[in-house]
Task: structure prediction
Amino acid sequence: MSYKIETKCVQGGYTPESGQPRQIPIIQSTTFKYATSEAMGKLFDLEASGYFYSRLQNPTCDTVAAKICEMEGGTAAMLTSSGQAASFYAVFNIAGCGDHVVASSALYGGTYNLFAVTMKRMGINFTFVSPDCTEDELNAAFTPETKAVFGETIANPALTVLDIEKFANAAHAHGVPLIIDNTFATPVNCRPFEWGADIVTHSTTKYMDGHGAAVGGCIVDSGKFDWTKYPEKFPGLCTPDESYHGVTYTERFGLAGAYITKATAQLMRDLGSVQSPQDAFLLNLGLESLHVRIKRHCENALAVATYLKNDDRIAWVKYPSLEGDKDFELANKYLPNGSCGVVSFGIKGGREAAEVFMKNLKLAAIETHVADARTCCLHPANATHRQMNDEELAAAGVAPDLVRFSCGIENADDLIADISQALDKI
Ligand SMILES: Cc1ncc(COP(=O)(O)O)c(C=O)c1O
Result:
């Protein structure tokens, strides 16, 4: 039976048998006992499924990954220690030294740095394209070494909406998968696989956890990308893995399981960016109410964005679900039930005015975090980007007056009153 997203949030991934715990058990164990070496050997040969060491897999983490997998409509999923680890693994699982990736330029700053600096040092080259590029411009970014395309459904902090179909079509025309970071939209508001994406990543630290309690990430595979059509491009999936007893992942696990099994058997084994069972348990609590919270985040953000648009102390507002926004059409197509809880805006008076505004907020807390039940706010020019002057900020795509306001699930009137009284102090 196929359930709707709300039911998957609450009950997906875990169906206890009679007499079993109603809540998912936290299996706080690094290791698992076997009666014979032979039984354990079968696990190492990937001939039997089961657990042997929590650096690779843990039952609690797998239960929560299975829920997110159901929510996204995928065939396999894994949890990671952070969103950064998810982005890294998702790309590194299919691209290595000498390879190339096309990425949208509208990305979370940490992801941009991971790609443009750290992974470049590993020999993987990235070409960044504007999310608004034409199909010709997008196609021109590919090289014979391109192994993937990467973008964010709703970019943090630019709040642009990716035309997922445009990017998926270009990726598939060049025989590579589209990887989408779906953190800000969550599968409640958008399921990128329904628009042609092949792999989805998440920083579960954001709305999925939603309570500022646990850092984490997730990768989900749609099982739809046919690696075996391009064995020369994806030898790691289509030829024997000598580091894992000569297994060929696509042969043994099919399209449904090859990508995630390889990421678990190779990358988790060697790099070990696991989520802890305790954190997976907390993440699951967050997921159970995700659909209820996301609706409220979006209602509050639309109310705040509408208020800001009509306040003449505000220079500009960016919120994709706000009528007149440059991404409004794309938001209507891909995010018809709401986009996210984050609104960006500029205050007349620039950097100095923004500083006074921030100082006077009472309810909204100054944090680098976003997508939390409690409203939080950041003025990058005076916090994360404070070492940059106005020209450097412009080059980085961050306006000096930009305030990122992450609406929580409080009462919208209280959020607007807080903004209004802080603007009065300027
Ligand atoms: C869209 C997006 N992707 C990935 C990340 C990285 O996630 P984490 O902080 O869990 O490593 C973030 C963090 O803010 C993000 O906003």
